Amino acid sequence: MTRAPGIEDPRPLTGPADGSDAREEDTGPDRTWASQRALMTHLSPQRWRMAAGVLLGLVGSVMGLAQPLAAKRVMDDMSQGRPTAGPILMLSLLVVTGAVLAGLGHYVLQWSAESMVCAARCRLTERLLRLRVPVVERTEPGDLIARVTSDTTLLRQTAPQAVSAAVTGTLVTAATVVIMGFLDAVLLCVTLGVIAFVGVIVAVVAPRIGRATRQVQDAVGHIGGALERVLGAFRTVKASGAEHWETQALHRAAEHARHRGTRAAAWEAVSATASAVVVQVCFLVVLGVGGARVTAGTISVSTLVAFLLYLFALAPRIGQLVEGVSQFQIGSAAAVRIEHIETLEAEQVKPEHAAQHTRGVTARGDSSDMAAEDCRSPLDVTFRQVRFSYRPGLPRVHHEVSFTVPRRGLTAIVGPSGAGKTTVFSLIERFYEPDAGCILVGGKDTRQWPLSRLRASIGYVEQDTPVLAGTLRDNLTLGVGDSSGEELAQVLHMARLDTLTDRLPHGLDTHVGHRGSRLSGGERQRVAIARALLRRPRLLLMDEVTSQLDAANEAALRNMITDAARSTTVMVIAHRLSTVTTADRIIVMEAGCVRAIGTHGELIKHDALYSKLAHTQLLN
Ligand SMILES: Nc1ncnc2c1ncn2[C@@H]1O[C@H](COP(=O)(O)OP(=O)(O)OP(=O)(O)O)[C@@H](O)[C@H]1O
């Protein structure tokens, strides 16, 4: 398959690769509200578990809050010569129980965070596999991977802390303030001034943290995309000696992420430092004002000590609140990136059809219902005046393409590179929809077919014969689930793979490496053919499947294809005309049009292009 000049490179879902600020405009209140709503969507299913975690933490905090009062009681009893054993025991109990409850609350919150992220990952992965082919072609797979892995991790790290800090921090701060008010109203006014000041800082800085975090995650997505690009063509990069250039590109992406990361860190630092400094200043002011009031005899030393203890307790709570707001912004940024996948266009598959597809029931005719027999019959294919371009603005790839392929028999499609042959198969598989005209499979418009049933009826061997990481067995049974040893042996024999399984150390259970890297090109091609045959397709589509085979294997597979064409509809795309001279009909395509249809003999006589192709390949 060739790629037309002018086709843009796949790009990430958001943000340009040059690092310019694509999201600068995403800062309005609507955007902030939307990002918070996105985060709440993830949090709400876990609300009860989170509430339990927060409650435990809260009770722990309340016990912590009672500790200064208990300490004050110990000091008062000591100074007045009363027995102190009881108050000391109470203080110890408060310390231990408070710590245990706070720890338990933390555990329950983390548990809910794990459940939340697991649910998000399951939903995302399901969605990703249902995305439409053109949508995925326009994205960077690395960026999609980053959304499922790094963004969900960020969500897990931030969301429960944000909720816990918001609830616990607010309540404990309020309670502390009330108690401080009882102790001394003047000192409380100083403290409230501090809280107000911190509030202003948080209101200014928090949205900037959220925005900076989104930019960091976008930049991390770029690194994923760049890595995926290089690792996906690892040998090509090495053979081209392009490691240096590609490393430079990765370094640029890493630098960009660092730049974004430091900006986010700077805003977080501003927020944390401001709250810390202000709390320290407040402590000094309270110490000064409180000392003067003790000297004047307005309050007792124990009251000042208790007030200072509360202030000490309040400082981390204010820090926690500020941190909570920051975490909320970070979690919202991650949630927005995750949510974005949900907005991408996906294929509509009814659940029952998807399940059937997974078991391969329809394709393999295992169903015992009345339609079972019909489910096995071969499918004819008709293209009626099909017009198609891959995207609006791109050149048209098919111009009024029309042809009919009857049930059973071998139909070949030939023509120069870029003529639109592979596109015919992509349209039959409904990876794309035609712009005009219609495509009938089994007499029914492909748009009327339940998508998974359509695909389950077709065996498609692609041009670049992808093999997935995993065992040979996994690759053969992809999409059909368990298959009997007999079935497997049969298709392995048909694809001339039986000698390969004998050679492999663990037979069918041998791992074939990333993208089948431990297999030869010809072996990969035959694995793809065996996989398609195992589905017992009603329509078999084969795109250049013999290009990497030696003469003996090619001849054997030609015979296999001829055999298969007796019981099912077989369409093959071939550059080597030697593989299709015996086809029942040959469709000659050129520049997106069907220029002739006939047998080899007829076309040699009547079609100049075919005759020329045949002549070049020394066939005539
Ligand atoms: N995913 C795609 N997005 C945009 N354009 C595409 C895409 N796939 C193919 N094209 C363009 O569509 C045209 C037809 O491609 P197609 O793969 O159908 O040709 P082909 O006849 O199978 O070529 P070949 O014999 O080289 O495999 C080409 O110009 C190609 O660049």
From TrEMBL:
Transmembrane annotation, as ranges: 50-68, 88-109, 162-179, 185-206, 265-288, 294-313
Location of the ABC transmembrane type-1 domain: 51-329
Keywords assigned: ATP-binding, Cell inner membrane, Cell membrane, Membrane, Nucleotide-binding, Transmembrane, Transmembrane helix, Transport
Q: From which source organism is this entry?
A: Streptomyces alboniger
The UniProt entry lists membrane topology as: Multi-pass membrane protein
Q: Highest taxon of the source?
A: Bacteria
The name under which this protein is listed is: ABC transporter ATP-binding protein
Database matches in SMART domains: AAA
Q: Which stretches does the entry tag as region Disordered?
A: 1-31, 350-370
Q: Where in the cell is it found?
A: Cell inner membrane
Tell me the PANTHER family matching this sequence: ATP-BINDING CASSETTE SUB-FAMILY B MEMBER 10, MITOCHONDRIAL (PTHR43394:SF1), ATP-DEPENDENT PERMEASE MDL1, MITOCHONDRIAL (PTHR43394)
- Compositionally biased residues, Basic and acidic residues: 1-11, 20-29
UniProt domain ABC transporter: residue ranges: 381-616
- Which GO CC terms are listed, alphabetically? plasma membrane
Q: Which Pfam families match?
A: ABC_membrane, ABC_tran
Q: Is Cell membrane one of the keywords UniProt gives this record? A: yes
Q: What is its main location?
A: membrane
